[in-house]
């Protein structure tokens, strides 16, 4: 019998052989669900068989996962995410094992159909989509869906079901439903296997980062559709209702780009209830059901960038529709995001005088055009882009179409920012103009919040983790604020929050110390379990600072009410450590080594922190805590090397290679992983 909160089975589809299997979810319970379980399955089905080199995300042996967690479908706030995992074609220069996620109704519907996730391997001979109706799974012909936008594809699949949403009861195998299928699909950008292709569900709930739309395209997989008429067993319904009421009483809105719109704002992910205060703010985007983040600011430019022209807001709204329908990653391909940051012109900043929030594909392309690296008289023809008409709605539409269809210069653009930089022969721009955090992802508030930057380095993408970072004082003076943050972690170590970055103190208690390594490890264990495996949204729960600070008690309270377990918060951290360490083993098999974990060059230069959105940090000055503006913070290579050694020691990895040790793996219940790494000469 399935553990409460879970459907009890995972769907495994081999598109090459057309084999459909059911896996027992409980066999993977030790990884927590979501990204953790996906990592375990990838290790079992893609790594250990040894049939390929783990080097090409478009290879049929790559797997793509749509996985839920224990809280999916439970109706609690911030718990409707679907975890997406697989090797990422966007990652650069190695296509690492990676992750993304999206909201909406898909994870809930998957649970109501009795499934905890979908794992896909292989490649179909021709376009198909996977159709899940309760317990019945079929691989359907999608030749007539190929070429459709993400919206049109979903509408066509809905027509095939005959369901009139909310109007007529439909008889399914297991019961009745008023719901149309929840569908995740890709558009032209995925069909053409661009590295910037997103997966889109509904009007705009998308898994953008990672290029997983392109992975769907490489498998000839147009979509996955699911409708369910079942229910989800909750171990203690009363405890769940009580916890939910308590949370809503104390919870504050936040996240997104403001939220709290007008009367037309009503969309939210299934069960969340935070849509009008959070990220589904319809009055911010042209279409209904659009996430309010990079999508709604995709074509945002400053007057400086537009040579004095700033486009009307309605053009940005239409831009949202372009990337949602083509299935293009808005974050990766935007023109700088909603803001830029001026550096101090009285000092010599070698990067640039005006730093964009995201130095992404569109911004970098226009910078290269301005510098005459591309365009007329160069070897890089920019057709079909009407560069002389930038900025305009016409340019915006052609830019999106060129990327999605790989037309002309769009063939290079579809490779993503990092590979465009390489193709232009300008990899030194990673030290300056192209502010790539690591592994092919652009800057996104990585400094001066160094735990975010370190996570980018140690993971495989921009970590995009808005939770549990120093965002302001948690009441009282500086010393009291630090104590409050430390207490909130339940480990109570104030030195975790020393952001001293200069002098000997940086090495003793600051950003290169063992204390910062412990804090980053804590954060990664939390994130790997509670966010990416259990399924809590990035905008909810553990908030250590500010007016609505909360210790991390809601997460296990909800979880225990749902599952009937009696896990403490720290029990969850240990599961997160297991999943994180197994992920490290995957990286090791892909070639990861301590020597290659180095930041791109701009991290080591003045100006690196200027696009940070929270630059005030606590500094330990002698024995006194102070809140200082760390806007000029940047790393030293020596300091980062020391941090890595501390971090590997904290995690139980070899300090010289970064490989997990047998002692650590066996202590986490992973002796077979240790055996396999040893057989390949990669055990720490």
Description:
The structure is a single chain. A six-stranded mixed beta sheet has the order 2-1-6-3-4-5, sandwiched between helices. Strands 8-7-14-11-12-13 form a six-stranded mixed beta sheet, with helices on both faces. The chain has a two-stranded antiparallel ribbon with strand order 9-10. Strand 7 and strand 8 form a beta hairpin. It is built from 21 helices and 20 strands. The chain has three domains: 9-227, Aldehyde ferredoxin oxidoreductase, N-terminal domain (Aldehyde Ferredoxin Oxidoreductase,  A, domain 1); 243-442, Aldehyde Ferredoxin Oxidoreductase Protein, subunit A, domain 2 (Orthogonal Bundle), CATH 1.10.569; 450-657, Aldehyde Ferredoxin Oxidoreductase Protein, subunit A, domain 3 (Orthogonal Bundle), CATH 1.10.599. It starts with 8 loop residues before the first strand and ends in a 5-residue tail after the last helix. The model is unreliable at 253-265 (pLDDT under 50). By secondary structure, the chain is an alpha+beta fold. The relative contact order is 0.11. Helix 1 packs parallel to helix 18 (569-589), helix 7 (313-326) runs parallel beside helix 10 (393-405) and helix 16 (514-531) crosses helix 19.
């Amino acid at each position: 019998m399935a553990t409460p909160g879970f459907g009890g089975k995972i769907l495994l589809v081999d598109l090459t052989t057309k084999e459909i299997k059911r896996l027992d979810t409980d066999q993977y319970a030790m990884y927590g669900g979501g990204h953790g379980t996906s990592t375990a399955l990838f290790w079992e089905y893609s790594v250990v068989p040894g049939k390929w080199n783990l080097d090409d995300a478009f290879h049929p042996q790559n797997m793509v996962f749509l996985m839920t967690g224990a809280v999916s479908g439970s109706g609690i706030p911030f718990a409707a995410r679907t975890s997406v995992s697989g090797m990422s074609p966007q990652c650069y220069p190695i296509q690492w094992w990676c992750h993304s996620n999206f909201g909406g109704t898909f994870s809930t519907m998957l649970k109501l159909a009795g499934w905890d996730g979908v794992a896909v391997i292989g490649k179909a001979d021709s376009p198909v989509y996977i159709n899940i109706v309760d317990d019945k799974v079929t691989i359907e012909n999608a030749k007539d869906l190929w070429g459709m936008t993400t919206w049109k594809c979903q509408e066509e699949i809905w027509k095939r079901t005959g369901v009139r949403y909310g109007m007529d009861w439909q008889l399914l195998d297991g019961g009745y439903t008023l719901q149309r299928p929840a569908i995740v699909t890709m558009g032209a950008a995925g069909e053409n296997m661009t590295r910037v292709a997103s997966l889109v569900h509904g009007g705009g709930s998308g898994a953008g980062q990672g290029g997983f739309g392109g992975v769907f395209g490489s498998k000839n997989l147009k979509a996955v559709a699911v409708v369910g008429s079942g229910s989800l067993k909750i171990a203690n319904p009363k405890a769940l209702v009580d916890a939910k009421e308590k949370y809503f009483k104390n919870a504050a809105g936040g996240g997104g780009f403001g939220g709290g719109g007008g009367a037309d704002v009503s969309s939210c992910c299934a069960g969340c209830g935070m849509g009008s205060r959070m990220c589904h703010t319809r009055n911010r985007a042209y279409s209904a059901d659009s996430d309010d983040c990079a999508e709604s600011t995709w074509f945002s430019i400053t007057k400086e960038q537009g040579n004095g022209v700033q486009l009307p807001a309605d053009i940005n709204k239409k831009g949202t529709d372009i990337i949602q329908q083509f299935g293009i990653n808005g974050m990766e391909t935007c023109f700088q995001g909603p803001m830029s940051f001026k550096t101090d012109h009285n000092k010599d900043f070698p990067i640039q005088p005006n730093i964009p929030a995201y130095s992404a594909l569109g911004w970098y392309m226009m910078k290269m055009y301005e510098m005459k690296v591309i365009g007329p008289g160069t070897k890089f023809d920019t057709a079909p882009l009407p560069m002389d008409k930038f900025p305009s709605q016409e340019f915006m539409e052609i830019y999106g179409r060129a990327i999605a269809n790989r037309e002309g210069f769009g063939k290079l653009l579809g490779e993503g920012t990092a590979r465009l930089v390489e193709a232009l022969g300008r990899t030194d721009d990673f030290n300056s103009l192209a502010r790539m955090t690591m592994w092919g992802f652009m800057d996104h508030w990585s400094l001066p919040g160094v735990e975010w930057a370190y996570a980018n380095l140690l993971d495989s993408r921009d970590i995009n983790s808005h939770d549990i970072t120093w965002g302001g004082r948690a009441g009282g003076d500086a010393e009291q604020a630090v104590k409050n943050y430390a207490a909130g972690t339940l480990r109570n170590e104030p030195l975790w929050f020393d952001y001293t970055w200069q002098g000997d103190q940086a090495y003793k208690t600051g950003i290169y110390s063992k204390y910062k390594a412990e804090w980053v490890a804590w954060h990664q264990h939390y994130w790997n379990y509670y966010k990416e495996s259990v399924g809590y949204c990035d905008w909810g729960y553990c908030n250590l600072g500010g007016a609505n600070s909360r210790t991390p008690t809601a997460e296990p309270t909800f979880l225990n009410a749902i599952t009937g377990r009696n896990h403490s918060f720290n029990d969850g951290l240990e599961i997160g450590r297991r999943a994180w360490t197994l992920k490290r083993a995957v990286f090791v098999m892909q070639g990861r080594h301590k020597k290659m974990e180095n930041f791109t060059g701009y991290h080591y230069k003045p100006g690196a922190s200027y696009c940070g959105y929270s630059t005030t940090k606590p500094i330990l000055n002698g024995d006194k805590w102070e809140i200082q503006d760390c806007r000029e913070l940047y790393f030293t290579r020596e300091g980062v090397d020391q941090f890595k050694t501390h971090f590997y020691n904290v995690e139980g990895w070899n300090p010289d290679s970064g490989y997990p040790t047998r002692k650590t793996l066996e202590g986490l219940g992973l002796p077979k992983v240790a055996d396999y790494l040893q057989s390949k000469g990669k055990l720490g």
